[in-house]
Specification:
Layout (H helix, E strand, L loop, with lengths): L1 H12 L21 E4 L9 H5 L5 E4 L4 E4 L9 H5 L5 E4 L12 E4 L3 H10 L2
The chain binds iron/sulfur cluster (SF4) (2 copies).
The site of one iron/sulfur cluster has 14 residues, from helix 3.
Length: about 120
């Protein structure tokens, strides 16, 4: 009875252990692996991220000048971020917003090969 009374007094005089989500959101911890992003300006389309990715969710095509990423196949291991030679890939600690549909992120950059291909095709 006494221990219950102690708990009652404790709970009445302390803040609740839980947050009132979604009104109060928890800030992600330092080092949280939320999601990756590519700064295409810094990217050289070397393809290293594609080669090290264990879930095969990055496709780099130098001829097309594209960097493609399937966010829903990504296991957020960070291997691509560690391997990227230009540090164009970064790991953000915020999680990617929810989505009801799968999508692929396509980023385009002009390379010598892609410019030649477009010239040949008359684009
Ligand atoms: S490793 Fe970095 S620079 Fe190379 S293709 Fe991937 S994102 Fe671009
Ligand atoms: S974080 Fe891991 S799974 Fe996601 S794209 Fe990079 S290497 Fe692939």
């Amino acid at each position: 009875m006494l221990s219950m009374l102690k708990n009652v007094v404790y709970n009445l005089t302390h803040k609740p252990a839980t947050r009132r989500y979604p009104f109060e959101k928890r800030e992600p911890f330092e080092g949280t692996r939320g999601h990756i992003e590519n700064d295409i300006e810094k990217c050289i389309l070397c393809g290293i991220c594609q080669r090290v990715c264990p879930s095969n969710c990055i496709q780099v095509d130098r001829k097309e000048g594209t960097w493609k990423f399937e966010p829903f196949a990504c296991i957020v291991c960070g291997a691509c971020v560690d391997a990227c030679p230009t540090k164009s890939l970064i790991m953000l600690k915020e999680y990617r917003p929810i989505s009801h549909e799968k999508y692929v992120i396509v980023q385009k950059k002009e390379t010598k090969a892609s410019a030649e291909k477009e010239e040949k095709e008359g684009i």
